[in-house]
Amino acid sequence: MKVHEYQAKAFFASYQLPVDHSILCRTADEAVAAFRQLGTEKAVVKAQVHTGGRGKAGGVKVATGEEQVRQYASQILGMNIKGFTVDRVLVGEAVDIASEFYVSILIDRKSKSPLLMLSREGGMDIEQVARETPEKIEKIAIDPLVGMTDYLAREAAFKLFDDMQLVKQAVPVFKNLYRLFVEKDASLAEINPLVVTKDGRLKAIDAKMTFDNNALYRHPDVFELFEPTDDERKEQEAKDKGFSYVNLGGTIGCMVNGAGLAMATMDMIKLYGGDPANFLDIGGSSNPEKIVEAMKLLLSDKHVKVVLINIFGGITRCDDVAQGLIEAFRLIKTDVPIVIRLTGTNEAEGRKLLEGTHFTVGTSMADAGHKAVELAGKL
Ligand code: GDP
Ligand code: MN
Contact, 291 vs 328, CB < 8 A? Predict the structure, then answer.
């Protein structure tokens, strides 16, 4: 789960990380009022959206004086950055930057531990640094049983700074960032840039955090910041109904019982040159209500051209499933072609029930996958 910069900065502040005073605003008038409250000569006006690269998109501007604050805030509010519309800006004290550094902690699957990443070349071009000169990014694996000890934090600090005054300031930054990362079950805590100001102080002028969804239940303070995208909202609604659903953006909607079979179904679609619209595991039983709910979910996705239903009848018998499907489709009106493949207990009986209906019946998984891709290609 992502949070905005201003929310991440609030977490930073509560862990004694060096962030400046800043005020969240929803209108240009509020931005001007915030500027007056800050009482500084210059202020930075920053778009608050769930994506990086705001600076390059024109969503971060340093303003001198009230009129410029108003002008930049009006420009940035309503701006579209990578598909996100800006409805909030953060107005903060502008910092006089001497140099910019990169610091982050994330979970590294390779070392199976948290990883501290550091670079002297922080700032807006960090992606390019990672691509072209990866040796300029230092990586320090942190043993979770030992944690961020003083010596490790000092070792890290020396990788970024030569000046002892800065090393001394950096040590608690790493320690506190790590404590925040662990205690809040974050999957990423990033400061880019961590700057050295012209008067020699360290400041986190950007803050980015993402949190492990599976641990949100124990962090109500984080979960209350959840602002789902349309896709995430749909996934959450599906979860509430007992489905496991992931939108994938293709054209063939899949309704499957069992996660393994759902994965295999998506592979099959890909094999025949199609694109699955989603992963959907409707779980064990396949009663008509469940099928109706699942169909509503699939058909609410405007990209779906064909629905492929792939059901394994183990405890649920295929003839019951077929009956359930026929009943369900009395309640659903749709022109979207439906391909069905049933296998398992009483599959022959199940297929017989579907004969003469408007469903396209697949005799095997391959046959059904092939038919679904073919139909999607024609539409
Ligand atoms: P991002 O592009 O979404 O990562 O947004 P950042 O918050 O990192 O800002 C992008 C860039 O704007 C930074 O790398 C800085 O160069 C610049 N910037 C941000 N805040 C300030 C500030 O207070 N003063 C100055 N001079 N520049 C700033
Ligand atoms: Mn940044």
Answer: yes
